Amino acid sequence: MAVTFPWTFANLSGSVPASDLDDNFQWTTVLANVVPAASTLTGSEKVLIYQTSTGAVYTTLTNFASTIGVGLAAQAVILQTGRTISATGDLTWTSGSFNGSANVTGVATVLSASTTQAGKIQVATSAQAITGSSTNLALAPGTLTGASYQSKSANGFATLPGGVIIQWGQTAAISQNSGATTITFPKTFTTAVYSITATPLNAVPDTGGTGDQIAQIVSMSGTASFTILLQGVSSSSTAYPINWIAIGV
What we know:
3 helices
């Protein structure tokens, strides 16, 4: 049989022999070799299709593509049912519903870190580092390096995370004749002084043992200073600088 096209091709018109169409109404090799391939398409080109109810019909390429695009995932322009993308782990994220017609975005939430969960963690302020009560803040190296928290000098101090303060210093030379000597801390302790150790600096110690001196701490009741008294086995007017270290909060 022969099939008659409802329109005229640019280089092919009239009837097409049945031998040029297979059983599925597709072009055979013979016809494909005769008709050149289109280099560009505008959508207005005619498409010949076969419907069991009406037989051979034609439509535009645009209408044809629009029709077969509905319900066929391989050729769909949009999805009939919207979908979302989710992420879990150290962050949570769920996109908005999308069907392929437009881009979608979503705001990801990074989980907060804990002793059992990896995630984001905020850097503690100096005040928070001193308090030392938080379990979800990070301590940065420079948090307690300001002038209020440490002094790297001969008479200085350092504040540790949690609020413990270590102070140290060296006095001018004093002797037994100096009597009780008050030493002022470089930084006043906030709450209390826990311990003080003081030692005379004697570059030439007395090998006989009668001239060695000791520094007795006679008062540490305040948070701003303490009092020492230099004593020895025998009376001596030799003066020594006193090295000391104090720990408190």
